[in-house]
Amino acid sequence: MYVSFETIPTFVWVFIVTYAIYLIKKPRLSKNEPPLIPYKYPIIGHTIDFLFNPENFLAECRQKYGDPFNIYVFGQVNTIVGNEIAHEVYQSDTFSLSVATRDSFPLYRVLRSLDNPETMESLIKAIREGITAKLPLYTGRMQKQLMGYINKEIGDCPKPKLIDTAADNFASMIARPVADVLVGQEISKNEDVIKAFADFTKDFASILAIPPILSFIHPKVHTQVITLPLRFGFNPILKHMITLKKHLKPVLEKRLKEKKILGDKYEPPLDIIEYFVNDLENETKVITEGYMNKICDFIFITVVASIHTTSRQLSSALYDFAGRPELWDDLYEEQVRIDKESDGELTSQHVNKMVKLDSFVRESLRTFDAVAAIPQKCMDSYTFKNGMTIPKGRTVLTYLSDIHYNTTAYGPNPRSFLPHHGMENNIPASKTDKNYFIFGSGKHACPGRFFAVNEIKIGMHKLILKYHIKTPSGKVEKKVFHGPLAEPPITGLIFENR
Ligand code: HEM
Ligand SMILES: *[C@@H]1O[C@H](CO)[C@@H](O)[C@H](O)[C@H]1NC(C)=O
Ligand SMILES: *[C@@H]1O[C@H](CO)[C@@H](O)[C@H](O)[C@H]1NC(C)=O
């Protein structure tokens, strides 16, 4: 009998293709690997458990198989490291967060400078030297910018007013101090620039809405598909680039000119673009298109690292506050005292005195509830101190719940909200430690954490002084989960003048 392609029924094809993928995709493990959790269905592996029941699933694995262990998700073996092993990963040079995020968040496709490894290095240096070290000098400006948002966007609330937070989780609030610090006082007055900063991450992420189904074949296939629109000329962030360039160029030119005229008498403004003017002096005296691209890339990379991360935690902290009436008086009392002391003009000393608020913020960050996060790519085969080995190319995820809900550190009910824990143990919100990994750990720990915590504290201080803040239900609202990742609740918050 002659068999044409058409006579082979579809289901046979499906079977053949599935079996072929299965053969290709059968998880390959090297010698001495952490235990691979057994699973029922080939290819699918633990994908369903990991997406829909991560907390219980990982807790069960951890209990039966210890730390670390391997799971099989979207066609890839991932190694999960918990409380005992995570610190090893963060101390080693073998792991890279930026390489791990390339596939799932291909920002380098639109910000080409990210392809140059020196970009991240100089960016981290600029954050350390230009933001963290100068934080006290920025306090007044941050306060002004945050108040600008509060007065304009929340405003007078003689009656309870429901503010929708789901649309941007206060990204347009945090965009203001970030813009002030990055591009300076002059440009940050411009509402178009603020909007470009606030929307950038969301607009870029709009191309990532496709779930990584194609990663079952290979993660690269997924990356190729999600970046297709970019290759066809659709660039959701181009308009933000144009806005920034338009406002930035004349300011850079002005500064360069002043520098030339004034020489040693030039008084450098305090902001991150001043870093670039210094650079420019050495390289060239004219601002070229290539130079503008470089500096805009640099600024938007920082925007992606700093705005949504911070605003999401601010939003979450406000929900934590609003849902816990028992904490209101104590925190309000501290803010009123510091407000009187500072006469409404905060300095960094005043921010440092907000110890109750700091402890509250730390607790909100600890209980944010991301189950497993911070992907890191293993860049060379790596052997843990316990002798287990993982191969080059493996993605390692940090089991944050295991670290943040540790009973030795946080007592018998580690999941309860312990507002005084940081204060009583003298650990500020910006300090990483072995049971607090929200900012990572070791030499790559988030360089922006001091800035982020300051923004959250100043923002909350001002909001608590001005308003009663409640949740619609009067209780703690539920967070939204995307697989093992958490997002703040979306019910909205009720503001009313004090
Ligand atoms: C509450 C807000 C924030 C959270 C939760 C957060 C979290 C993190 C985490 C978990 C890491 C990885 C650390 C590691 O690998 O050990 C990281 C890295 C980083 N963060 Fe943040 N971050 C926040 C705000 C910021 C801000 C405001 C900036 C910039 C001003 C920033 C810039 C960076 C940079 C540049 C890195 C890469 C560091 C490196 O690779 O050495 N972050 N952040
Ligand atoms: C520019 O050159 C001067 C003198 O050669 C040097 O001191 C300075 O560090 C350089 N600046 C940068 C940003 O490279
Ligand atoms: C909590 O963390 C510490 C330090 O990492 C560790 O020594 C201890 O065993 C952990 N406790 C539990 C119950 O896992």
UniProtKB/TrEMBL annotation:
Supply the CDD domains for this chain. CYP503A1-like
Q: Which residues bind heme?
A: C446
Cite the SUPFAM superfamilies for this sequence: Cytochrome P450
Location of the protein in the cell: Membrane
Instruction: Provide this UniProt record's keywords sorted from A to Z.
Output: Heme, Iron, Membrane, Metal-binding, Monooxygenase, Oxidoreductase, Transmembrane, Transmembrane helix
Q: Name one GO molecular function term.
A: iron ion binding
The answer, when asked if Oxidoreductase is one of the entry's keywords, is: yes
Any one GO CC term of the record: membrane
Q: Which residues cross the membrane?
A: 6-24
Alphabetical list of PANTHER family matching this protein: CYTOCHROME P450, P450, PUTATIVE (EUROFUNG)-RELATED
Sequence similarity: Belongs to the cytochrome P450 family.
Listed name of the protein: Cytochrome P450
Lineage at the top is: Eukaryota, Fungi, Fungi incertae sedis, Mucoromycota, Glomeromycotina
